[in-house]
Amino acid sequence: MDLTKKMRWDPSFKIRPEEQVNALETSPAMAELAAISEPSATLPNILRIVHASLEQNPLSSSEPLPSFQDWTGLIDRVRAAAAHARETEAQAQEQEHRVQELLERVREDIKRAGERVRAAEAKAAKIEAEAELRIRAAEERATAAEERASIAENWLRRLHEVISDEFSSITTGEHRAA
After folding, report:
1. Integer angstrom CA distances of residue 177 from 40, 165, 167, 172, 174
2. Which of 59, 67, 102, 120 is the most buried (most CB within 10 A)?
3. Which residues are CB-contacts of 35 (< 8 A; sequence separation ≥ 6)?
4. Is residue 1 predicted with pLDDT exceeding 50?
5. Cα–Cα distances in Å, from 10 out to 17, 23, 176?
6. Which branch of life, at top level (predicted)?
């Protein structure tokens, strides 16, 4: 039986208090307690350690009751575990608070991005409508220009015919007169 177990369950075992402290500081239980004191430790780790301790040292009615120092040590360990649990809870709450702030900023960023997208879509729709109006106006002008060109071609053809008819009689008459 290791020293910490003997100290815990054997009231006849006499050891000076400073030796008890030194023995406890080097014990595996204290190493585990120091390990759970790390910020990364969680409540499941604490429960795992307590459960393992109970499996190793189950209480039975045949064993003598723990001494006053044992209870004091146990209370100190419970207080340390409770303090660690409170510290862990405070850290968890702080982290949750930071996550909530980050989520709020992300929501605001998404909202602003959505507003920018809607503004860009509205601007694009306006530009598209203006472009369609300009295209229609250009098509109408092109159609009108084609119509005017067709009319001009018809007039030129008619003029050519008239000139050709009128001057051809003159040129043929000159050839006759000559």
Report:
1. 125, 18, 15, 9, 5
2. 67
3. 41, 45
4. no
5. 15, 15, 157
6. Bacteria
- Residue percentage of the chain with pLDDT more than 90: 48
Residues 65-104: tens digit of each pLDDT: 667 778 888 889 999 999 999 999 999 999 999 999 999 9
- Token readout for 173 is 């008459």
Eight-state DSSP code of residue 10? -
User: Which residue type is seen at 50?
Assistant: V
> Distances in Å between the alpha carbon of 57 and those of 31, 78, 167?
17, 17, 135
| Residue 142, SS3 per DSSP | helix
pTM, whole model, 2 decimals? Answer: 0.40
Helix boundaries (H) for the chain: 3-9, 17-26, 28-36, 43-56, 68-177
Question: Could you give the CA distance from residue 134 to residue 38 in angstroms, rounded to a whole number?
Answer: 71
Written as one letter, the residue type at 73 is G
CA angle 136, 154, 138 (to 5 degrees): 10
Q: What is the 3-class SS of 51-76, one letter each residue?
A: HHHHHHCCCCCCCCCCCHHHHHHHHH
